[in-house]
Amino acid sequence: MDKLLSPVEAPASPETPTAVSRRSFLRYTGAATALTGLLLTSCDDDDDNEEAGTVDVGSGDTGVLNFAYALEQLEAAFYTRVKTGTYYTGLTATSAERQILDDIALHEEAHVDFFRTVLGNSAIKDLDPDFSTINFNDKNSVLTAARTFEDLGVAAYNGAGVFLQSAVNLVVAGKIVSVEARHAALIRDLLTYNSFVASDVVDLFTPTSATSAPGEGSGSGLERSKTPQEVATQANQFLQAGSKLNVSNIR
After folding, report:
1. Contact by Cβ (8 Å): 201, 184
2. Closest CA to 176 of 193, 196, 160
3. What phi-psi label fits residue 186: left (phi over 0), alpha (psi between -120 and 50 degrees) or beta?
């Protein structure tokens, strides 16, 4: 089966899709150089504000990007761990399920490399995950956790986008969240068919009646978002002490 997704819209290249190198990913985004420049002019040292035992992601655009970097670290570590469990190793090499997990793992690793590069010295430390509540030998446990991480990532990007000041950063974030949304849709359908736009992630539009005029009804039809604080509360359940996120300066 051909690769199902690529991290961003990319030109044809012999380097994709089996190994999305950092160099290739940065070239594909077309915005890395500009983004790096913006960060260099806005970076600051937030160590003085860091609460004991937490990782302060910082403020401003750097804070939002570090917040995204933290979530991407968590997702990448999760899919790396998935490959060690018997659920994954028991899948046939050509199965669609294994192909999807392999593709998503590549994308998350590329996202981590991307943020680490553009943040440079402003990047937070490498985080230590805590996946002790996940049974990596059980399909339902793995996919339920994957759904949590993917849904959380989408809600986080959408919820934090309002705090970005740079149009360049907003465009890059929009590109990445569109990929995360595709991940979420795939994982959701692996768990429950046709659940990719269920009411827990989308404010579904319901017509007033079968004969109502277009637009008459309830619901916006838009993705549900979460604030950085709401996301951090969930993400911190999967991070060890000393790696839990402090997002109080994103506002």
Report:
1. yes
2. 160
3. alpha
Residue with tokens 């039809």: 221
Q: What are the distances in angstroms from CA 63 to CA 96, 160, 176, 251?
A: 37, 10, 17, 10
| Secondary element (H or E) of residue 54 | strand 54-56
Q: Which stretches of 128-227 are DSSP H helices?
A: 139-160, 167-191
Q: Which helix (H) or strand (E) holds 218?
A: strand 217-218
Whether residue 184 is predicted with pLDDT greater than 60 in this model: the reply is yes
CB 64, CB 164: distance < 8 Å: yes
Q: Which residues lie across from 73 on neighbouring strands?
A: none
Cβ atoms < 10 Å from Cβ of 140: 10
Give 203-231 pLDDT, tens digit per residue.
999 888 878 787 788 899 999 999 999 99
Residue pLDDT, tens place only, 125-160: 999 999 999 999 999 999 999 999 999 999 999 999
* pLDDT band for position 185 (cuts 50, 70, 90): very high
Phi, psi values for residue 182, rounded to 5°: -70, -40
Q: What's the mean pLDDT when you consider all of the chain?
A: 84
Reported pTM: 0.80
The structure tokens listed for 205 are 């539009």
- φ/ψ (deg, to 5) at 217: 160, -165
Helix (H) or strand (E) segment spanning residue 77: helix 60-82
